[in-house]
Amino acid sequence: MLLSLIQTFQVFDTIAVLTNGGPNGATDVLLYKIQRDSFVSLKVGYGSALTVVFLILLGLFAIAQGLASRKREG
Fold first, then answer.
1. What digits encode the pLDDT tens for the residues 34-49?
2. Do 58 and 6 contact (CB within 8 A), yes or no?
3. How far apart are CA 65 and CA 72, in angstroms?
4. CA separation (Å) from 74 to 14, 65, 66, 67?
5. How far apart (Å, rounded) are the C-alpha atoms in residues 24 and 64?
6. pLDDT at position 55 over 80
7. How far apart are CA 38 and CA 52, in angstroms?
């Protein structure tokens, strides 16, 4: 389950190519929003803040996965 959550953050290319954010942002994900705000809208500070949030979330998921795998081993 944790791996599936981490992989949901990696769908940037699919959204960018197929839907371009969709109607009224219906298919937006965090990585697509970071790219759009940083490079299209030129809100570099806001995009940087979103990147920090993304890294924190990814770190928390990695820690949770590590704890879950330790419980299975021991």
1. 888 899 989 999 999 9
2. yes
3. 11
4. 39, 15, 13, 11
5. 33
6. yes
7. 13
Tokens representing residue 4 in the block? 């599936």
Q: What share of the chain is helix, strand, coil (3-state, %, to 5)?
A: 80, 0, 20
74 has a pLDDT exceeding 80: no
The model carries a pTM of: 0.71
Q: CB-based burial of residue 32 (10 Å sphere; 0-12 exposed, 13-18 middle, 19+ buried)?
A: buried
Q: CA 5 to CA 42: how far, in whole Å?
A: 29
